[in-house]
Design a protein that fits this description.
Single alpha-helices involved in coiled-coils or other helix-helix interfaces, globular, 3 domains, Helix Hairpins, Rossmann fold, 15 helices, alpha/beta
């Protein structure tokens, strides 16, 4: 097994599979060597829509090995001018709302009915112990995974904020450069995932179930304020109840201040199982896109997202530089022990190790 790059590993399913495999689960599959690619081979393969090379490039940028960062950054820099001309849709909802079924229905509508390409970035729940993901969305979206116009990338959250993989933005960029004009980002629907996904998409959809009842009172205000639309899923099971729930949420939305985009959030009903209302949901997404393009909000939001990406990259770089510092590595365990035993407060320990880091940098 190569120690140079993660892209020297080949995992099954085979490389011509429409989807791709979670790199953190590679140990579960049979492996064999394959030659590393040059930056030109990566970029050329991505730009011509080669899903196997796209998958390998994503594996590379997800690598935590310092030696892979330079190559990953070069690939991203060269792909950036070819990205951005897409529709990015974030989809969230509580477990049981049918997110995976809904995304598959929406994805197949795009590929089969509209002849478009779609990439699904599905963030899997991760084991707190092994860091591995369960690949649940990959196995549930069987129809979409078999579609030549689709690319599904399950990535483990691995402790990242709100269940959003650290490299979701970079993965999105590569998928756009590969010609996938529609990007669907699914959250695990817990914690701060909604905020993290909202900061990287153009349209934010909240999936709910009919008969919300008291859930309407308990739902977080922040999610509603971020929402561009609410879709009441599984409406085929009880149409009357679904319509009642739709009216409840529509009334609740009137209590919130107007969105910065000028768009009025909508509430619709649909059924992912029967495909009822799925086409209408996408038409609403396209209408929102045209509306925000027309008033300038779309471009302003994309610029704000780039600035946020810059700040997060700086924070991540500083954190990694700090953690790799030899003096920090030598003294931090003792300081952690002092905090554990109560001999030192976390604040004082943090100050000491930061002072040590700063003095080391000045020297």
């Amino acid at each position: 097994m190569s120690e140079d790059r993660p892209d020297t590993l080949l995992v099954v399913p085979p490389v011509d599979s429409p989807g791709s495999v979670d790199p953190h689960q590679a140990a579960l599959y049979q492996r064999r060597r394959r030659p590393a690619l040059t930056p030109d081979e990566y970029v050329d393969g991505i730009l011509r829509g080669d899903r196997a090379i796209l998958g390998r490039a994503i594996t590379l940028i997800e690598s935590t090995r310092p030696r892979d960062e330079e190559l990953a950054q070069e690939i991203l820099e060269r792909c950036l001018p070819h990205a951005g001309q897409t529709l990015r849709v974030g989809i969230t909802g509580a477990p049981g709302a049918g997110k995976s079924t809904f995304i598959e229905a929406l994805g197949t509508h795009l590929t089969r009915d509209r002849g478009e390409r779609v990439a699904v970035l599905a963030v899997d729940p991760s084991s707190e112990f092994s860091g591995g993901s369960i690949l649940g969305d990959k196995t549930r979206m069987e129809q979409l995974a078999a579609d030549d116009r689709a690319f599904i990338r399950p990535s483990p959250a691995r402790g990242s904020l709100g269940g959003v993989a650290r490299r979701t933005r970079e993965t999105m960029l590569l998928c756009e450069a590969a010609g996938f004009g529609n990007i669907l980002v699914e959250t695990v629907g817990v914690g701060q995932s909604e905020t993290a996904v909202y900061a990287m998409v153009d349209f934010f959809l909240l999936l709910m179930l009919a008969g919300a009842g008291d859930e309407l009172q308990g739902i977080k205000r922040g999610i509603i304020e971020m929402t561009d639309a609410i879709a009441i899923n599984k409406a085929d099971m009880d149409p009357l109840r679904a319509e009642q729930t739709r009216r409840q949420f529509a009334s609740a939305l009137h209590l919130f201040p107007p969105a910065a985009s000028g768009w009025t959030p909508r509430v619709v009903t649909c059924s992912a199982m029967t495909r009822q209302g799925i086409a209408s949901v996408w038409e609403m997404v396209r209408e929102h896109h045209a509306f925000t393009r027309g008033n300038g909000y779309f471009d302003a939001r994309r610029r704000a997202q780039l600035r946020r990406w810059l700040n997060e990259a700086i924070e991540h770089g500083l954190r990694e530089d700090f953690q790799r510092n030899p003096e920090v590595q030598r003294h931090l365990p003792a300081l952690e022990g002092a905090v554990d035993s109560g001999r030192l407060s976390p604040f004082r320990a943090a100050r000491e190790v930061l002072d040590l880091y700063r003095s080391q940098r000045k020297g």
